[in-house]
Structure formats: C-alpha cells, structure tokens
C-alpha cells in the first residue's frame, strides 16, 4: 500500500483552513460532444460569454462605419465621468498590498502552511512579467516618456472655458528641460509602477488564496464566498465570471491591437511592408497561429518556454540600449526618476480636484481601466503559478520587483529618447506612437539588428499574452477546471484573434481601448469587493510554517 | 512474465474504468505481478479533491478498495501536473519508466475523427512507451 514516501507529492501541504461548501467543482458543467470534439464547460458562463463574443465580432464587422465613433464616445464618457473612481480604486489596491507586506497576515502561505513552490524564481518571474506588461512596454517604452516630456516643457494652455487644453501632467514645467524630464518620467513610472502591479497582485492573491487554501474552484466567483456565501454558485457568481471573461477578452484584444499596429509599423519601417488593414489582419492571424501552437503544447512546454525566451530577448535589448546609449545618464536617470516618482506620487494619484484633466482622464484613467480589465487574466495566470509562496514573498515579487524593472526599462528607453530629443533629434518627437521605438533605435548603431529584435519582441510578447489569456478564459468558462479538453483553448485563442481583428477594422485602436475601458469599469467594483474578501480570507488562515520553521521541526 | 503493472486511473471518471481495472486485476493475478495505480491531478481544486494531499489520499483509498482483497501487492502513486490537459500522456509514459513497470493496462475510447487532430491518451502511450500496452476499449 502506498505510504507517503513513495507518492509523487514531495511535501505535505500543512495547515490551511478550507471553506466548507456542498458545491462540487464541475457540478454545473455540461460535458458533451460537438461533432468529434469533447467539451467540458460551465453551462451559463460559457454559453453567455461565448455567444455574446461571437455576436459582438459579427456586429462590429457588419457595422464597421458606425461603431468607431460610438466606442470613442463611450470611452470619453467613462474616463471623464468616473476618473475619480478609477484613481481612488487603484490607490486602495496599492495601500492594501503595502499593508499586507508589513502586516502579520503576510506570513500566510498559499497552498497551505507547508506547501512548496511549483516554479523556480526565474521561471515564475518570467511568466508573471511576460503576462503582466507585455506589449505595452514595447509600445509605450519610448513614446510615453517623450509625450509627457514634450507636453510638460510646452507648459499649460487654457481653452475659452478656462479648462486646461494641454496634456501635461500636474502643473507642467515650462521651458525647464530637467524639471520636465523628471515630471515626465515620474508620470510614466506612475502608470507602470506600483499601481498596475498592485491591481494584478490583488486579483492574483485573491484567486490563489481562495483556490489553494480554501479549496474553491480557480475562478473569480470563489473570491466572493465570504461576501455572498452559497449564492456565488448561482447567478451572482455567473455574472462575476462573465464580467471576468469579457474584461479579459477585451483587455487582451487591446494589447493584440497594439501589437499588430506596432509590428506592422516596424515592418514598414524596416522592410517597407505598408501599413494596411490587410497586413495587420494577416499579422494577427499569423501570431494567433503561433499562440495556438503554444497553448496546444501546454503550460510548461509552450507558455513557460516562450516567456523565458521573451525575457532573454527583452533583457538583451535593454542591455544594448543601456550600454550603447548614454549609459551614465541612464543609471543616474534611474535614481533621479525614482526620486521624482516618490516626490510626485501623492499629487499624481490624487483622485479629486485635478486641474490637469486631459492628463488624469486621458492617460491615467485610461491606464487604470486598462490594467483593471487585464487583471482577471494576469491575476489568474499569476495565481496559477504561485502556489507555495507566502503572501509577503508573493506581494514583494509581484509588486516591488516588477515595478523596479519597469522603472529601469522606462528610464533606459524613455531616458535615451528624451536625451536624443534634447540633443536636437526631432525625428523621434515627430514619429507616430507605434514607430517611436524604431526611430530611437535608428539613432543607435546596428539599428537593423536591434529594430528586427524589437519586432520579434513585440510578436513574442503578443504570443505570450494570447496563449496565457486563452488558458485563463478557458478555466473561467469551465467553472474553474484547469484540465478541460484542449479544443476549448483553441476556441478561445481563435476568438481573441477575431475580436482583435473585428475591433481594429471597426474603428481601429480607439474602439479597442474603449472596450477595454468599458469592461474595466464594472470590474473595478468587483475588485473593490475582493479587497474585503482577501482580508477576511487571510484572517482565517494559519500563519505559514515553512519547511525550516520551528513548528515543522516540532512535528518531526 | 510481468513483474510490475502500471494502471493509470482517472479518479473523476471511475465509472468508465471498471472494465480496464478488472482486466488489470485478472492479468496481474495470472502473472502474479505487482499492481501500481497511477493518477494525475492538478494543484488547483478539482471535482476529485481540493488539494494535492487530498488527491493522494483518495487515490490510495481507491487502490485499497479495488484491489485490496485480491491478495496482490498494490501500490498507489499520485502525480501533480502543471497543465493536465496537455501533459497527461507524457507524464504517463515518464512514470511508467520511473516506477520500473513492464506493462501498462489502461482504458481508452474508441478512436474517432478527432483523434487525427488531438491524439487520445491511450494512443499516445501505446506509440511512445517502451512497455507493453494493453488498451481496454
């Protein structure tokens, strides 16, 4: 008879405090055959989200002309009416995470007191980073610092109604290049630093806690058990899960749109392949194809391996820019930007009474909504690979380290570009958003190689977002089952590509962003409730006792 | 002729495995070989178990229940996969070697059109394992 010694599981999971419920995972699932393929899906969630997405793709493609302006109005209305809400919500997530690092609750271990991590630090970190930021770093790494720098140095401007018409953050910095640089970097880091990672960390922690420690299925609804009780298995839960699917799908499609736009612009820049709808659609199809291969290969053989390749390529490009660019300025810039970030953080994150409405609504609210719409996807993915970490270790690694990497990335790329602009290279400032990265690389030696590497990176980031996203949506729509039949992943992976295509054709990036923002709004409310659940859940957990801790030794 | 027999089981679909398990017990009795039950689970909660620990317990209970009375030497081995849907077949082949088994008896469905695109687990094991494989359909 098998004793503990000859089983495949290396260590016991130790103390945890599971939630008692009569719900059986998969009890609402339908297992059926469609044609030759077996399916195992959560009935209402899969049906409603699947059918709405299919309908959405067809309607958007059918009414391409009229949907564009509608999406843009929607985005404008949401980000200007609810800017205070988005900004306050993000601040709450940051405060919650920082609190958990220092509080005794941080000692709780995900997966039970004696659980051991599934992945090494490098594999874990590569996956959470590739999923979390991805294409955005490529798209905005050069363009955002430049935009904020230029608008800051341009100073403030007022319209007839006394409202600010400039896009500068806070009070701008007219004519003062150093101050404008600091302000621009602080604003960029603000959008890529603690706040987005706090949003991810919150969602990921909630999912990991309620799944690994409480024994509930790995899906958004489980997080709300402390609030809604058994009702989470009914329509309350269905609505939460469907919202999560929509948010993920549109958040992903936005990124895929950015990726297609930038990869196409890069190819045009390098090889003269013209920027047309046709070539973007072709790119999305080709890249979705690679993502399909990756999801079919699975988490370890596909997603993890690609994420690691991705990290190596990104590190190479970063290293190149640091060494070939103004090295000392970048290193100095890293520290001055960090200081500037801390200095401007209270003013930038202030949710009410802002004079710089264009900046706080057009940039900050949009970003927060976008991060929030991404959060179920990134959060669930991070949760799935984070079993065995303590809460403190988890938040430090998901919040602090990626934030610092983002600061370094932004100072290297943005700092170099701003440096070039102030030395009189006007091409970068004049180039369109997707092309700014390549115009900057052109100023450095070996630009043919680095630009090509840049395009490859955009594409690999694109693939790593798309494949991990498919896994996540599949899990949510299978009622938390991570072992649902493979054809379902193929369905979601394909539809991510189709949604991206539909939105690109029906109004371009504007509609993509609008949909991301629109699904981010309801989901932000869901996340605020999740904060309460996390505290509730952690308080009922026994504190971690690692393999080396005294409590475990006493057992031996 | 056979020393150790590997019997992969799906704890979520025990009802579909009766025939395969009976075949395994009969064969093992005949050759007086050791029976080794293998189940692969996930580290997230599933319909079978809420944690890897519970999964392991369920498998060992199941092994005892099914073959405890046969008088054979019975062992149970639980393995946790990161991505069960894609890794299962590969894990079965790997475990067959690691556990030192010389024959695999497992349930498989009747091949259909879909098997040309997504190989069945049984089909994969039969084409990749070094051991003799008995697929029960």
TrEMBL record, chain A:
The chain crosses the membrane at residues 45-64, 84-102, 123-142, 194-212, 232-260, 280-299, 311-342, 362-382, 394-412, 444-463, 490-509, 515-535. It is a multi-pass membrane protein. Keywords: Cell membrane, Membrane, Transmembrane, Transmembrane helix, Transport. It is found in: Cell membrane. Its main location: membrane. Residues 1-20 are annotated as: Disordered. It comes from the Bacteria. Belongs to the BCCT transporter (TC 2.A.15) family. This is BCCT transporter. It comes from Thalassospira povalilytica.
């Amino acid at each position: 008879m098998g004793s503990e010694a000859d089983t495949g599981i290396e260590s016991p999971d130790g103390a945890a405090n599971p939630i008692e419920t009569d719900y059986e995972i998969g009890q609402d699932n339908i297992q059926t055959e469609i044609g030759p393929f077996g399916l195992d899906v959560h009935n209402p969630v899969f049906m409603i989200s699947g059918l709405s997405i299919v309908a959405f793709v067809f309607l958007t493609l059918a009414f391409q002309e009229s949907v564009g302006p509608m999406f843009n109005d929607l985005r404008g209305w949401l980000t200007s009416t609810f800017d205070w809400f988005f900004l306050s919500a993000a601040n709450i997530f940051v405060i919650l995470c920082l609190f958990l690092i220092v509080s005794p609750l941080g000692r709780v271990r995900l997966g039970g007191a004696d659980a051991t991590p599934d992945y090494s630090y490098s594999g874990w970190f590569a996956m959470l980073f590739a999923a979390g930021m991805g294409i955005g770093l490529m798209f905005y790494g050069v363009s955002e610092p430049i935009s904020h720098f230029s608008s800051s140095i341009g100073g403030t401007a007022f319209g007839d109604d006394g409202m600010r018409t400039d896009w500068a953050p806070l009070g701008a910095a007219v004519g003062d290049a150093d101050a404008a640089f600091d302000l621009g970097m602080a604003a960029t880091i603000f959008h890529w630093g603690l706040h987005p990672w706090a949003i991810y960390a919150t969602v990921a922690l909630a999912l990991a806690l309620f799944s690994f420690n409480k024994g509930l299925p790995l899906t958004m609804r489980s997080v709300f058990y402390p609030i809604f009780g058994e009702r989470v298995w009914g329509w309350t839960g269905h609505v939460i899960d469907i919202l999560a699917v929509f948010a993920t799908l549109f958040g992903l499609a936005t990124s895929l749109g950015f990726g297609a736009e930038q990869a196409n612009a890069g190819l045009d820049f390098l090889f003269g392949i013209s920027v047309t709808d046709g070539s973007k659609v072709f790119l999305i199809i080709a890249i979705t194809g690679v993502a399909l291969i990756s999801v079919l290969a699975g988490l370890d053989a596909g997603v993890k391996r690609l994420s690691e390749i991705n990290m190596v390529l990104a590190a190479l490009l970063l290293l190149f820019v640091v060494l070939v660019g103004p090295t000392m300025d970048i290193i100095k810039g890293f520290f001055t930007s960090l200081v500037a970030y801390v200095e401007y953080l209270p003013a930038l994150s202030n949710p009410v009474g802002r004079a710089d409405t264009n900046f706080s609504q057009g940039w900050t609210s949009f970003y927060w909504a976008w991060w929030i719409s991404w959060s179920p996807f990134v959060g669930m993915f991070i949760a799935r690979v984070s079993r065995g970490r303590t809460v403190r270790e988890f938040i430090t690694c998901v919040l602090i380290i990626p934030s610092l990497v983002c600061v370094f990335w932004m100072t290297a790329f943005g700092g170099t570009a701003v440096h070039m602009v102030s030395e009189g290279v006007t091409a970068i400032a004049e180039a369109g958003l997707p092309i700014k990265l390549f115009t900057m690389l052109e100023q450095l030696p070996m630009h043919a190689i680095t630009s090509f590497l840049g395009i490859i990176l955009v594409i690999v980031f694109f693939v790593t977002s798309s494949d991990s996203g498919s896994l996540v949506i599949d899990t949510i729509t299978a009622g938390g089952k991570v072992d649902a039949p493979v054809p379902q992943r193929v369905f979601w992976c394909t539809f991510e590509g189709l949604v991206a295509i539909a939105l690109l054709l029906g109004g371009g990036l504007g509609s993509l962003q609008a949909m991301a923002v629109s699904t981010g709004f309801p989901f932000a409310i869901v996340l605020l409730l999740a904060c309460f659940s996390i505290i509730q859940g952690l308080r009922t957990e026994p504190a971690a006792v690692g393999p080396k801790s005294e409590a475990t030794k006493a057992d031996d | 002729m056979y020393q150790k027999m590997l019997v992969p089981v799906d704890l979520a679909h025990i009802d579909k495995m009766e025939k395969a398990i009976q075949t395994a017990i009969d064969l093992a009795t005949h050759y007086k070989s050791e029976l080794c039950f293998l189940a692969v689970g996930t580290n997230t909660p599933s319909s079978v178990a809420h944690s890897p620990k519970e999964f392991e317990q369920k498998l060992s209970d199941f092994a005892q229940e099914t073959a405890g009375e046969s008088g054979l030497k019975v062992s149970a081995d639980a393995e946790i996969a990161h991505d069960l849907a894609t890794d299962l077949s590969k894990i079965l082949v790997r475990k067959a070697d690691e556990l030192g088994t010389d024959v695999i008896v497992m349930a498989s469905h009747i091949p259909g059109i879909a098997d040309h695109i997504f190989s069945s687990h049984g089909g994969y094991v039969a084409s990749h394992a070094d051991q003799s494989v008995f697929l029960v359909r």
